[in-house]
Amino acid sequence: MSTFLNLLAYGLADGAILALAALGFVLIYKATGVINFAQGEFLLIGAYLMYTAWVVMGLPMVVSVLVGIVAATVVGVLVERLILRPMVGEDPISIIMVTIGLAMLLKAVVQMFYGTNPRSQPAILPTGSVSFLGATLPVNRLLVVVIAAVVLTAFTLFFSRSKHGIAMRAVADDQQAAMTMGISVRKIFALSWALAAVSAFIAGVLLADLSAVDQNIASFGLMVFPVVILGGLDSVPGTIVGGLTIGLLTQFVSGYLDPGLATVIPYVVLVLILLVKPYGLFGETRIERV
Amino acid sequence: MTTASGPTTAPAGAAAAAPAGEALLSLNNVEVIYDDVILVLRGLSLEVPRGKVVALLGSNGAGKSTTLKAVSGLLPSEHGEVTDGSIVFDGQDITRMDAAQRVRQGMSLCMEGRHVFEHLTIAENLVAGAYISKDSAEDLEMVYGYFPKLADLRNRVAGYCSGGEQQMLAIGRALMARPTLLMLDEPSLGLAPLLVEEIFGYIRRLNEERGLTVLVIEQNAQVALDVAHHGYIMEQGRIVLEGPAEELQENPDVKEFYLGLGEEGGRRSYRDVKHYKRRKRWL
Ligand SMILES: Nc1ncnc2c1ncn2[C@@H]1O[C@H](COP(=O)(O)OP(=O)(O)OP(=O)(O)O)[C@@H](O)[C@H]1O
Ligand SMILES: [Mg+2]
């Protein structure tokens, strides 16, 4: 029972971070149609932005988070403006290549400043543990789940209630029609990249707090692909279900079966889903009226 | 103000009485080219007087939709460009203005095929329509007042609504931006005759009760000319005939060509009209 609860806590925490990471991916895909292979590197940049503000510059923790969010927004907008906008109208393969190039570029920037060795950073979340039904559960992982839930709820409300969130979904549905309402498609694209970078910042910082500030953050980010294929490339609720499923599955396979198998299981899921439900569990299908 | 009192492209014999009153919108010798080579509008001029309903008629491929896209600034998103002439709206040259900015100047377009946001609810579609305004509570009430059906269905996902409901939504959504000029591209498309009458009834009411200026494209010339004050007929990228709606309705060419009526006034079969269209071109 205690093993189960432990794996559950670890799996939920991983899943929550994956959901945040996947949210950014889905935002970009939904609004702009770009498949962003640099999502993992956005997490990496996020973690190192926090490290720079907090440890290197010595700013207070809360201030560092705010500075990090602003910096992530700027990175997102710049990437859209300088790298993606000139590619509008190019074929999807070229755009995918550009995002792969972007991934390498972002990684190189981090290595240029901080090399490849892990950096040590004080813990952000309390590191103690609580006992629950005989299991000792790490407090920071439970808090990660809570934080991710709050952030995801905020994003969901933004999309369903706010004018700009609704405008983003309108652009995702029909760009030309959105233009006839005075919605600037360029601004919406920039907004999508900025929000994606911010959600990646939060995911990257949380992940670094649970593991370490190092290059592995980008590899963890690779798992957004099984997550979004499972949940649907364009579905916000899908990121939550997909993230939690992959997070829990990896932890349970690792704990009960074999840690080696756990690293490939997300990709097994990916292949299976592609065979059975290519739009993912929640992917938007074209509405057909009869 | 540059109004197009210049050379009218209407052929001799056409009832070319220029619409009275100040023009809210005027196109002056507008030329549009797609993909740098496809010439679609060839020096098109027309005027929409403030407070009037103007119908733009013409056969498939004449360039009607292109005209509205040129006015609302959608051409760049389709690799099209206004290469000559000017478009003046409310006294301001908007020929090169950004599409989003034109909406803020007071024009709304309902595109051909309705283009509702399929995955958004009716209420969310209307919120998107009010994107440029700060407070839209009153506008929402006004739209629900005109289209009570939309109020009943406000939480229904637009993609699942019927064609008629979607057309009402498209018009309602366009009204949310508080336009002075409403442009409609074939609002009757795919609707049953009774619904077409209903939709044009709304257009008439919006014009009469709110003083809304309307530019409407139609294949269904009959119903459009019933509601419109003035009509233009275009062929291959130019205006070939224009005049007050009642005069156009009486014009023998229009009768034969667009209303499907023979000289003697009897309704002709579609096959005859089609044949006639092939035989006779005005340009
Ligand atoms: N994006 C485009 N690229 C190239 N050519 C285009 C484009 N849009 C329209 N055309 C061409 O321009 C001409 C006029 O098209 P337009 O859609 O304006 O006609 P229309 O009068 O609205 O016709 P319909 O009654 O069928 O809607 C057509 O020959 C069409 O093929
Ligand atoms: Mg058309």
Secondary-structure element series of chain A? HHHHEEHHHHHHHH
Number of helices of chain B: 11
The averaged pLDDT of chain A comes out at: 88
CATH class of chain A: Mainly Alpha
* Main structural class of chain B: alpha/beta
Q: What is the strand content of chain B?
A: 15-25%
Describe the structure.
The complex is a heterodimer of chains A (290) and B (283). Chain A is mainly α and 290 residues long. Chain A is globular. In chain A, strands 1-2 form a two-stranded antiparallel sheet. The model of chain A has no long low-confidence stretch (mean pLDDT 88). Chain A has a single domain, classed as ABC transporter involved in vitamin B12 uptake, BtuC, CATH 1.10.3470. The longest helix of chain A is centred in the N-terminal third of the chain and has 31 residues, at 2-32. In chain A, strand 1 (129-132) and strand 2 (135-138) form a beta hairpin. Chain A is built from twelve helices and two strands; from the N terminus they run ααααββαααααααα. With 283 residues, chain B is α/β, with parallel strands linked by helices. Chain B has a domain at 2-106 and 179-251: 3-Layer(aba) Sandwich (Rossmann fold). In chain B, 35% of the residues lie in helices and 25% in strands. In chain B, the strands form two sheets. Chain B has a six-stranded mixed beta sheet, sandwiched between helices. In chain B, strand 4 (80-89) and strand 5 (92-93) form a beta hairpin. In chain B, helix 3 packs parallel to helix 6. The longest helix of chain B has 18 residues, at 193-210. Classes of the chains: A mainly alpha (290), B alpha/beta (283). Bound molecules: adenosine-5'-triphosphate (ATP) and magnesium ion.
Give a topology summary.
The complex is a heterodimer of chains A (290) and B (283).
Chain A: H1 2-32, H2 39-56, H3 61-84, H4 92-114, E1 129-132, E2 135-138, H5 139-161, H6 163-173, H7 175-179, H8 185-210, H9 216-221, H10 224-231, H11 236-257, H12 259-276
Antiparallel strand pairs in A: 1-2
Helix pairs in contact in A: 1-5, 1-8, 1-10, 1-11, 2-3, 2-4, 2-8, 3-8, 5-6, 5-8, 6-8, 10-11, 10-12, 11-12
Chain B: E1 23-34, E2 38-49, E3 53-58, H1 64-72, E4 80-89, E5 92-93, H2 99-105, E6 107-110, H3 122-129, H4 137-146, H5 148-152, H6 163-175, E7 181-185, H7 193-210, E8 213-218, H8 221-227, E9 230-235, E10 238-244, H9 245-250, H10 252-257, H11 270-279
Parallel strand pairs in B: 3-8, 3-9, 6-7, 7-8
Antiparallel strand pairs in B: 1-2, 1-4, 4-5, 9-10
Bound molecules: adenosine-5'-triphosphate (ATP) and magnesium ion (MG).
